[in-house]
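Here is the promised in-class demo. Please do not try to memorize the tokens; focus on the logic of going from shape to residues.
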């Protein structure tokens, strides 16, 4: 089989310095060259022209930036079946990227702008894995290698600065995972990874990372999940890795800084009931350590606590036949709370020493056999925290508390074409056009909410 896709997205943004213009091409070719051998080839080209803001919380030193990015990624994969219980997998990914970042002038930052930084990245990531599986036991071992090169030019003519830095980082990982089902409803997951990471700045760390997970159906429909995961972040070209991404349903990989250590522990309960009702609760704590640039690094630690609760109900058509004949529906309710805590001398790009966002989401869906579907969601957002900002009079940091509370409404109407040939959707995000909030997006490249009213149309065709 093969696939070719193209995406173009452009918006003038939801405020000053927030323009975005993205173009993506992606092609995939996959073939079974024998009954036991499958090959996979994938290529992706990404162009982006965007405006963003560094330190968005700082009313003075917020530094708007114009970013031009061109990125090409290749990935080759091989899947070889040795026997009914044994498999061999190989993947090699290569990532080539070039960024040009211009710091723009504002009334408050003329000593620091204009400035231009040009970055060229090359990442190579081969990985091999062997898998063995029988009825109640699965086992895999793997080895991954990553080499990342970066050439960084910085030019600030008003400051008389022109620098060039070349960095090289490497990571080697050996890992093994086993999953065992000794009893019906009981599943144990064990893992161990040994990693070594180095760079030209002097970092040289060796880490052994154990992983433990448990899933246990203690009562009919009720499952307990436990996890304790240690790990260290490494570069991943195009996000490609064969290593398991979750342990007992808890993520262990994040889009984080290279060499950052993580320790995550969590507990969860998932319950399925009759009449299409399910609910659950999950809580975890993640500790994040940034190593110093030395052969025997010390670590600065961040802390995150996450709690999530949810409930879903698939409404039977019998309950709707009088008011909405021919329709079925579903209701969902979820609440999540995350607490971020950072030391005052290492607050990250967001400049926060603490931050706690909460989201209460109520969702409803109606659909019928003719192909129509209606979605409505209301989210109550509450957050509070403390920024660490710069005082330009004393050149010292000071704490600035902030908080906010507001609702966001989203809706969409869809129609599925006959024969499942596609879908037409008309929708809107942030229909109340809530703006100028104190809400801080912790992942600006994947925001949870539109920061202004956003109306869209979408056509999906299947051939």
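The designed amino acids, position by position:
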């Amino acid at each position: 089989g093969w696939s070719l896709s193209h995406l173009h997205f452009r918006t003038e943004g939801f405020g000053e310095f927030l323009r975005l213009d993205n173009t993506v091409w992606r092609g995939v070719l996959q073939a079974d060259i024998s009954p036991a051998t499958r090959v996979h080839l994938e290529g992706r080209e990404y162009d982006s022209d965007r405006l963003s803001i560094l330190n968005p919380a700082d009313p003075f030193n917020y530094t708007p930036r114009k970013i031009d990015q061109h990125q090409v990624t290749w990935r080759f994969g091989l899947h070889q079946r040795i026997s009914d219980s044994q498999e061999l997998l190989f993947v090699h990914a290569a990532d080539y990227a070039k960024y040009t970042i211009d710091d723009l002038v504002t009334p408050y930052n003329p000593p620091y702008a204009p400035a231009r930084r040009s970055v060229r990245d090359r990442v190579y990531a081969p990985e091999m894995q062997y898998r063995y599986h029988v009825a109640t036991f699965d086992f895999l071992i793997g080895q991954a290698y990553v080499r990342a090169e970066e050439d960084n030019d910085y030019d600030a003519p008003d400051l008389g600065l022109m620098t060039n830095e070349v960095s090289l980082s490497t990571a080697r990982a050996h890992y093994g995972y086993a999953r065992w089902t000794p009893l019906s409803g009981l599943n144990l997951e064990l893992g161990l990874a040994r990693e070594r990471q180095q760079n030209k700045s002097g970092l040289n760390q060796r880490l052994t990372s154990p992983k433990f997970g448990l899933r246990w159906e203690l009562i009919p429909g009720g499952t307990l999940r436990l996890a304790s995961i240690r790990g260290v972040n490494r570069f991943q070209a195009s996000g490609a890795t064969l290593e398991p991404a979750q342990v007992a349903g808890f993520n262990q990989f994040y889009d984080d800084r290279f060499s950052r250590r993580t320790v995550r522990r969590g507990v969860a309960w998932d319950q399925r009931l009759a009449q299409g009702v399910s609910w659950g609760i999950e809580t975890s704590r993640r500790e994040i350590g940034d190593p110093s640039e030395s052969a025997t690094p010390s670590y600065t630690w961040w802390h995150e606590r996450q709690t999530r609760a949810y409930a879903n109900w698939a409404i039977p058509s019998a309950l709707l036949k009088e008011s909405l004949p021919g329709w079925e529906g579903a209701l969902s309710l979820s609440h999540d709370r995350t607490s971020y805590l950072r030391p005052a001398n290492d607050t990250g790009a967001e400049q926060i020493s603490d931050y706690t966002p909460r989201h209460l989401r109520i969702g409803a869906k109606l659909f019928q056999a003719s192909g129509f579907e209606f979605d409505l969601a209301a989210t109550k957002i509450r957050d509070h925290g403390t920024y660490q900002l710069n005082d330009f009079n004393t050149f010292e940091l000071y704490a600035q508390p902030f908080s906010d509370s507001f609702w966001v409404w989203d809706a969409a109407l869809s129609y599925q074409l006959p024969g499942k040939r596609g879908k037409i959707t008309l929708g809107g995000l942030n229909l109340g056009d809530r703006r100028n909030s104190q809400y801080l997006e912790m992942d600006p490249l994947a925001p949870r909410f539109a920061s202004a009213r956003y109306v869209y149309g979408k056509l999906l065709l299947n051939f």
